[in-house]
Amino acid sequence: MAIQNVNPTAAQGASTQTLPNQTVTKDDFLKLLIAQLQNQDPLQPMDNQQFAVQLATFNSLEQLININKQLGTLQSAQGQTNQFNAASLIGKEITTTGNTIALQSGSPATVNYQLVANASRVVVNIQDSAGGLVRQLEVGAQNAGDQAIVWDGKDASGKAAPDGIYRFEINAFDLNGKQVAASGRIQGTVTGIKLDGSEPILELGNLQVPLSSVTNVSSKS
Predict the structure, then answer these.
(1) Is 67 helix (H, G, I), strand (E, B) or coil?
(2) How far apart (Å, rounded) are the C-alpha atoms in residues 209 and 190?
(3) Is 129:164 a contact under the CB 8 Å cutoff?
(4) What residue spans define the domains of the chain?
(5) Cα dist from 183 to 3, 15, 73, 94, 187, whole Å
(6) Are 151 and 130 in contact (CB under 8 A)?
């Protein structure tokens, strides 16, 4: 018997060929169920209980498909609502969680934060984008609640720091030297929004914050 030559490259290509992704729909499931009924053995028909289970499975599949469609519709509507809410904030004063400040033209920048309890000493560290210490501000004692201090925009040597985005770190201590919890705040006027991502981004001048971080909104005074 003659043996034909086999191209190993072609054989490998045939073995590695993948089928396109296919999704089973409720119509496919129904066709399978009908084909099963048409081709069953008349002398040994499908058990009633088994048939009832398959019908229940088909009903559950249809409900899951409908739920998935409804969730997709709700998600789309929620995205449009978020965009509308973000657009309505333009020109409003907002407060968000965060620990960044923008320095422009050597003008002072306000650092906002919140203390959980009274502190006998508060130290604010101003850091550049690389995490390097630019300035350390000794604030002294402060009460619990919202607080704010002004950074004059100068570094530790008294020179004007370059314009840009800086981070701040709050270190607060009570009379016993124990750390007091503190969290940063960002306050400013919304000057624009970005809608090209998964969540609207609010622009506060050179700062950008996500809509989900907003904790307070007020009309600009």
Answers:
(1) helix
(2) 10
(3) yes
(4) 93-218
(5) 79, 59, 37, 16, 13
(6) no
Cα(168)–Cα(128) distance, integer angstroms: 9
The answer as to CATH 2.60.40.4070 being correct for domain 93-218 is yes
CA distances from 118 to 102, 111, 142 (A): 28, 18, 6
Structure tokens at 27: 């119509």
- Quickly count: other Cβ atoms within 10 Å of residue 177's Cβ: 8
Over residues 15-61, the pLDDT tens digits come to 445 545 556 566 776 677 677 767 776 666 666 666 667 666 766 76
Which residue do the tokens 């530790």 mark? 156
- What is the Cα–Cα distance from 168 to 109, expressed in whole angstroms? 11
d(CA 208, CA 188): 11
**What is the predicted pLDDT for the residue at 81?**
67
84 contact partners, CB below 8 Å, separation of at least 6: none
Residue 39 has which token pair?
């081709």
| Tens-place pLDDT, residues 145-182 | 999 999 999 999 999 999 999 999 999 999 999 999 99
Give the dihedral sign, CA 57/63/69/75.
negative
